Amino acid sequence: MQKIGVFVCWCGSNIAATVDVKAVAEAVKNEPGVVVSTEYQYMCSAAGQKMIQEAIKEHHLDGIVVCSCSPRMHEATFRKTAEAAGLNPYMVEIANIREQCSWIHKDMAEGTEKAIILARSAIAKLRNNMPLQAGTSAVKKRCLVIGGGIAGIQTALDVADAGFEVDIVEKRPTIGGRMAQLDKTFPTLDCSACILTPKMVEASQSEKINIISYAEVEKVNGFVGNFTATIRKKARYVDELKCTGCGLCMAKCPAKKGKNEFNMELDNRPAIYIPFAQAIPNVAVIDPEQCNKLKNDKCGLCERVCTAGAINYKQQDELIEREYGAIVVATGFQPIDANPLNELGYAENADVVTSLELERLMNAAGPSKGTLVRPSDGKHPHTIVFVQCVGSRCDENTKRGKPYCSKICCMYTAKHAMLIREKYPDTDVHVFYIDVRTPGKNFDEFYRRAVEQYGVDYIKGQVGKVANENGKLMVQGSDLINGEQITIAADLVVLATAIEPDPTARSIGTMLTSSMDTNDFFTEAHPKLRPVESPTAGIFLSGVCQGPKDIPETVAQAGAAASKVIGLLAKDHLVTNPCVAGSNELLCNGCSQCEKVCPYGAITYIEKEVRGPGVREVRRIAQVNPAVCQGCGACTVTCPSGAMDLKGFSNQQIMAEVDAICL
Amino acid sequence: MSVNEKTWKPKVVAFCCNWCSYAGADLAGSGRLAYPAEIKIIRVPCSCRVNPMFILRAFERGADGVIICGCHPGDCHYTSGNYYARRRMTMLFSMLDFLGIERGRTRVEWVSAAEGQKFANTMNEFAKTITELGENRKLGDLRCK
Amino acid sequence: MIANELKKRALELLADGTVARVLGWQPGELEHDWSPALFENAKDMEGFVYGKYAGANLSKYCLKLNKAEGKTLVMLKPCDTFSFNQLLHEHRLNRENFYIIGVGCKGMEDQNGLLLKCTCCKGKTHEIYDEIIDDEEARQPMPEADRFEQVSKLEQMSHEERFEFWRNELSRCIRCNACRNVCPACTCVKCVFDNPNSGIASKANVTDFEENMFHIIRAYHVAGRCTDCGECSRVCPQNIPLHLLNRKFIKDMNELYGDYQAGVGEEERTPMTSYTLGDVEPGIVHERGNE
């Protein structure tokens, strides 16, 4: 039989005014297991705590019930009190007789009666409590950042700055991401490369940062503080340590018809190439689909001209396995494919371009060296029409695009329009929009400048059709303010295509057991209060992988993610919440239902020999990782056999409370 | 009406999730917002911890009403717990209705940690409904003795 | 005749070692209800029967054979394959341990004519099989009936009428556990009702809780996994229409969360292990229907 002590607090007059505390202490004296029951003015005071501790020692109590204020207030206090007296802190239960009793009732008899029931209920629960031990697990002091765009770079820099090692895994041959492709940035119009490339250099020069480019994360095991990742470093066919980035191979390579991904395929690049001049690492890579030597064993010119002897046609993919304490997802975005949107004529007309293509057309390092020309004939366009919300804010049922707002398009379109009007004042610029959304510091001022100072023609309405008539792009749209259908003969049409998560995001999310929404954006642990953490402990979110963002927001979130990572890596050990789920292997069916409802991926299945009365066989059973489980209890209800239970809130504990209340 | 031992008083069990509704109940308390003493709260980590068996057990043991309170959809501390609770409770309530148990003895309400007033209002309303429905005899009497 | 072909093929598979045993049917104690039976050789197979009284769903019997040496040949009617497939989804069976012959079915009967489950046949397509043995007649669709007709009828009644209906039905229960034992979704290694620590079992008979709640809890536990095979009602010696509880859940899930049939296709979330952000609130129960 357990020995239980009950301690009823007066809380001055807060409780004692409407609850007869002495009567409560008296009433529960004869409850099964109760060996001592007493009251005191202020249980949470030093004297009150001392009283509890003495009672624990004197009566050799193995559990206590404190009838006092809300457990949200003093549960932690009384657990510490108990622990200091040698009692397991989880053998403490609180009966909330202040917030949920004395404060809401006026009648003494009524309040006292309820307080007694609440005390009985807590005693009934306590009788089913088990001592629980908070576990610890060591933290591996290294961080993995998946994605080397501005989000990944910023997170890596901040984490490295705090003294922790960071690996950036980037799937492309260089870091820099989408921001490297941009020309100017809103609302300051400073050059994107000028602010990004110093950060790239800083990352490459940091002793703490290790850039693993042209690589993908293939597998992740483990849990917070203890992940193991397998990274596939794809063969570049160029020795990274030897290549000096001189570019001679690029000049000599005869296979020059490769599509230049960096320039949105608006021009070509050789089979051996460095994506752009400021690439990091500044090392060439051979496109095996295009290289004659790799395809047909003919050529070999690059090997002959390379004075550094860096070319290695026999290079193989390399698998790297490393341990990490934290993982940051910074997988970024891509613009959606505009080809299926037939009415906008993107597929047929070279002069219908996406905004990201326009960035390259306007960039000094782009295919036209910064002169704005039409891709079809290289002529200067005089009338340009921008179409907003292409594939954004679509009716979900039409399946013609994304239901969300891509958030950045209004601003970059204002930027494009402004830049064009400034550089080519003879150009007419029209913008078809649904709404202009400009929340952000200096954003609305920026947009208004485009309209008021630069004379950009904003037309509220959607575009129905873009048709090519004798070389002119006839843009038919509605002007909602003037209530008419209009047609503009344009030389160039720019589509503000929606952005979507990088196509690798879904598989990375699955690998990390990190939840995603229906649009493949990663879900945050709490939409308001934990915006940079994934619900899966130890996984953090940086940048657009979590939802559309502009550069300042991305950098802010990247820094926030870094601070969360630093907070984790600064710990040597993690103390785990002992109130976690656990599966009774003798009862477990291995049916996988609990795994499906676990929001944290804390449940796995193993084949294990199960031994019990009359049982000895290998079964598939559920295993809960206590370091990952957060203790919600979703699994316990899904489990039909009752094998899955939650410590601290077990079926028996709750049933006992129910019985005590309903008796 | 005076408090008389013989007078029937409803028994109501309220399951409240630790993060939102239990905190909402505390807030009702600190705001001294009264609701009937017949309502007793059981703290659970999340509404998804509430096993339909707890509810059946409560009814069978003499509860006249059971209410489950959790974070508002979208605000679950564990991100998805209340979504599971929502389906589970919908199915259970529908089954109880199918068995002929009076509607109104079961309820789900989303109460945030800031909604002390809503908590008190909900409990007052619910207690009123249960008092009107009267004693729950049916569930304990599903089989002839 | 399908029965002869089945027998011939089973003997072949036994002879060439493809399977170590055959799970089929043999005449039972009741003339109109053939029993599941295990045949291990040609001599055993003499007792094999198949025909209109082979209503028993053999899926659940596979559980005990899952770890037996060698493959088991199991004969499954189209609707039985849903149950078998559902057990695969739940990792209770290993596909490679079974050789499935999908058998053609012309509707099963007992002494009172067509079985209840056959009056609203789930179709003549086998969800999973290694080979199919049927004939032209077995492929003909059965007359269609609304399987939720009775559930809807009950839903239209008043609460009092419904309560009386169920009280009348459930009071007859003798807790023989036949429904639980036959149910292909009731496969727990240890049932909560057999576990004194579960909080709901009361072997000592201290309370009526278990007796009162048994069928409700059982129906809830199989919700989303029940294929509506109807075995529970078929085997009930007291003729309690237990399938109505399951069908009520199925009807609700179909109406509220979209049509769903357990045991179809690949392993996925059931309506009870999934959600959408826009799900209806539980209050809908109090708003819809009669009263």
Could you write a compact summary of the structure shown?
The complex is a heterotrimer of chains A (663), B (145) and C (291). Chain A is an alpha/beta fold. Chain A contains 19 helices and 34 strands.
Task: Write down the domain tally of chain C.
Answer: 2
Q: How widely separated are the two ends of chain A?
A: 22 Å
Inertia-based shape of chain C: globular
- Give me the secondary-structure category of chain A: alpha/beta
* Fraction of residues in β-strands of chain A: 25-35%
Q: Estimate the mean pLDDT confidence of chain A.
A: 94
Q: Provide the CATH architecture of the largest domain in chain A.
A: 3-Layer(bba) Sandwich
**Amino-to-carboxy terminus distance of chain C:** 53 Å
> Treating each run of at least 4 consecutive H or I residues as one helix, how many helices of chain A?
19
Strand order of the largest sheet of chain A: 10-7-6-18-29
Please tally the helical runs of chain C, counting DSSP H or I stretches of 4 or more residues: 11
Task: Write down the Rg of chain A.
Answer: 33 Å
Give the beta-strand count of chain A: 34
- Uncertain regions of chain A: pLDDT < 50 for 5+ in a row? none
Overall morphology of chain A:
elongated
Number of strands of chain C: 7
Structure keywords:
heterotrimer; A: 663 residues; alpha/beta; Rossmann fold; FAD/NAD(P)-binding domain; 5-stranded parallel β-sheet; elongated; B: 145 residues; 16% strand; globular
